[in-house]
Specification:
single chain, alpha/beta, Rossmann fold, 2 domains, six-stranded mixed sheet, 35% helix
Length: 464
Amino acid sequence: MGKIKSFILDTNVLLHSGQSIESFQDNDVIIPMAVLEELDKFKKNNDELGRNARMVIRKLDRLRQSEPAPGKLKEGIPLSRVSKTATGRLFVLNSCIEPGSPEEKAVDALFSSGDMPASVPDNRILRVAYERHLKHQNQVIMISKDINVRLKADALGIRVMDFDSNRVSSEKFYSGISRKSVTEETITRLFQEKEMEDHQLPANCFALLECDDNSQRCAVARANGEGKLKLLDYTLTDRVWNIVPKNKEQRMALDLLLDPAVRLVTLVGGAGTGKTLLALAAALQLTLQKEEFERILVSRPIIPLGKDIGFLPGSKDAKLGSWMQPVFDNLQFLLADSGSLPQEKAAPKRQTKMTVESLLNTRKIDLEALTYIRGRSIARQFVIVDEAQNLTPHEVKTIISRCGNDTKMILTGDPGQIDNPYLDKSSNGLSYAVEKLKGQPLYGHVTLNRSERSTLAAIAAKLL
């Protein structure tokens, strides 16, 4: 067995995951006192941060009081009391060196300077890490999701790491599409028989079959999870709520969106690739025309781009209207460009706003903040969660687990555009869900790569 390491946890790690203290196996976990002070500021929040803060605080209290005998957090308490996997000890410390020692004087001089004032909570957390580092050197590792804290710790000579228990490899990100080079005879046989043997692809993964000798000859099929590739029936996706797919990826996405057997779909792509538009078009068709669902529920994280404009007046619906404007833009496009309701013909653009309002008033479309989704059981609804890349893995789990009978859920987003300061392309909930759920018969995924919004949008997405 190697030497036991000491992992010093920053506040943002505990706020990111309430289970984080159990993620370090047989090593010691140290929580600086300043972290508890910061957790105290979040514990009353009615959001994921508040939930995780309360979870950690209760877990620490349970550790302190647990059998066979109460322990002292300053002296270390076995994590095995609350964990099946962690066998190290947990400490809550304000200092790691003896009062009055030469080391304390040196540390005081460093952390009382103008460069690292003790009034800053990050510096008080770093002080504990630095004191531990003076004694144990490379066995001490600072864990933080704050890049600036990691930079400071590294400048002090302390080993640093991001918290990555739920990270996925961005280099091996599952696209939902596999390109296969085959003979022209294989493609011809597939068009004739409508299916072919294939035991390699996971369920609902698409195969783009391209001819070796003729680049114009190709076919698109989807794996059924039972060793078969089923040729896509283009007639089902040629026109959905009067929009036409503009590329193969969009057609694949519509194939999943319209399939009643696929209950969860994730769509990943950059700006203008059509993620939200395709999801809304399928939702309108399945809910208003085919009546397979009772209503459409649309939600998105309440995270602003740039500086927040502050308090928004009005009712919940009025407040959400500002956040849901991108959804309204897509609805107005769909309803103005096509038949707005099943019994109506093409709606003039001047009537579009009225039509969107009528769908809201009749509750055929509901807007909901993700803040209020915990505890709900959502049945017979077509649920669209937009901008899902701004959710944590635990938030995505909470949302998906709300699905009741006959509900279909769509998660859309772009992992390259994350506004949550503690998430990145590899640790966000959308990427995590794609990686963990691939191959499940009820789940399908497509990565959309081509921007179709406009020529200008395509250029911006590619070059800027």
